[in-house]
Write a structure and sequence with these properties.
Layout lengths: L5 H10 L8 E6 L2 E8 L4 H4 L9 H6 L4 E5 L2 H4 L5 H10 L1
Parallel strand pairs: 1-3
Antiparallel strand pairs: 1-2
Amino acid sequence: MPNLTPQLLNKMIAKFDPKKGKQLLMANKDGVKSNPVLWSKALFQAANLVPENADIRPTFIEHADYTTLIKATAQELLDVNFKSELDTLETKR
């Protein structure tokens, strides 16, 4: 996520409050949930994270009612997972 800003991260940290029952905080653009995500330690066991099973999405879906959404821009949420995406990003700069 090369365009992630300190401002967005600070906003997320400020809004994250698991003591109020909101165990997840997810960025979103027009209602579409995205990384980055903050989640409380209380969900670690529920997620059952191990290298062979690192898909956290089912846990996030199960706990959707405990989720806070925070608005972000499409640029901030741009994710680069493949070399071709990195090449595209570099040509736009």
